[in-house]
Design the sequence.
């Protein structure tokens, strides 16, 4: 399983709308996605994870990430994102992880 974050990443009312492509490997049937976004300049961090899990054939994942401090909001600007995918396979589980510098932008296109 492979993925990357779409960047710029749309933010709406301070919530990051994280998404990316799902690239399935042979034998993978289901994927659980967990992500963390940190915005150093704002001293914010937020996490999100599925369920629902994503089924083979789905070509994209999407999660809404709220800052852990409920009184604060992500703002336009640079951020850093880390993703982890646990994929169920015929023989067990695989793990993949990646990290990426991203831009948060309320004017980014929403692909939903």
Sequence:
């Amino acid at each position: 399983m492979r993925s990357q974050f779409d960047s710029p990443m749309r933010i709406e009312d301070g919530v990051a709308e994280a998404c990316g492509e799902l690239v399935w490997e042979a034998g993978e049937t289901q994927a659980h996605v967990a992500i963390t976004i940190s915005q150093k300049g704002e001293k914010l961090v937020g996490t999100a994870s599925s369920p629902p899990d994503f089924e083979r054939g789905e070509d994209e994942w999407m999660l809404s990430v709220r800052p852990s401090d409920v009184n604060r909001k992500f703002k336009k600007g640079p951020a850093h994102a880390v993703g982890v995918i646990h994929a169920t396979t015929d023989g067990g589980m695989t793990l993949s992880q990646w990290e990426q510098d991203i831009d948060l932008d309320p004017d980014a296109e929403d692909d939903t």
